[in-house]
Predict the structure.
Amino acid sequence: MRHDLKGLTVENLPSGRRRYRVRVKGEPERKLTLPVGPDHPDFYEIYLSARRGIAMTPQANPADRIALHSIDWLVNTYLAHLEAMVRAGKCAPGTFKQRRLYYRKLCDFPATYGRAAGTRFGELHMDMPQEELIAFRDAHAATSGAADNMVKAVKALYRWASERRLTPSNPAIGIAAIHQNQGGARPWMVEDLHAFRAAHPPGSDAHMALTLFMFTAVRVSDAIRLGRDNESLRDGIPWLSWKPAKKGALSVSIPMLPQLFEATRASRVVGRTYLLSARGQPWASTDSFRNRFKDWCVAAGLPDLSPHGIRKAAGHLLAEAGATQHQIMVIHGHALASTSEIYTRGVARQKLARDAMALLGGIAW
């Protein structure tokens, strides 16, 4: 007799027992016999696997329940590699966490084209049509920056697979970005710095954080790791050195200005890092610190500002003070001059305009 699950038939055997068989989706002549009946807690999962052509037993390891060369299989294989890279210190934990989230969204996305339409994407073969990836990107267009980052993550996945000859091509190559850069975090103005310091006096955690960001131009991912172990003395002057967590960033080594040195010594609690949580421990993640910094900004009447905006402010103030593009590169840890050029470009044009008008004013006409 027929059962209400698609492709499932129930046969009554001479022994009085029932046998459950499932027709493999897309292969009408192929059927798999299920080892358990509907009363078993894993019955539905075993049924779904059989529909995909996978013969699964109740005791199967979860990794063995994934179809070989499916997108689920490719993602799991790559994430295992990426996790090993994190343990070896060759991949940032944040990168692994972000990509794992993106790949989960990719695998759970329903296919939109052909006979596979509506099927969970992870169950399909890993040779992904580019139009499916474009549909995935467009479905997340409301958060265009994240959508572009998802495509980048998929590009990295298939680049890794192509290098190992697991896939013949990379479907993410050639897909255009849809995010229009609006300038990112708003740089802090001098009056913003004054307002924050007025709300958070020296000795407070908030003041320590602002001073650290202002006089190092450090990223949040590095700020929560910096401490006295990063200090050294050179000719009697304290220096601060660190290797940024961001991939491709160059090592940074700068003298500690008096403002920063005094702030690090004014903290009530001394720990392994300069920035400590309410429990006196290093911050567990950049997200938890960002949330706390957001509270400090709100308390100072600056709800639209962020730590990254301080890094931008430092770059702009350095440029206005006459710092060269390469000097800003050294402080920010930039590997490319074009990255630091955003801070010097406007200042250089103003200087050129001022000098040019001075020349024009001296012309007898």
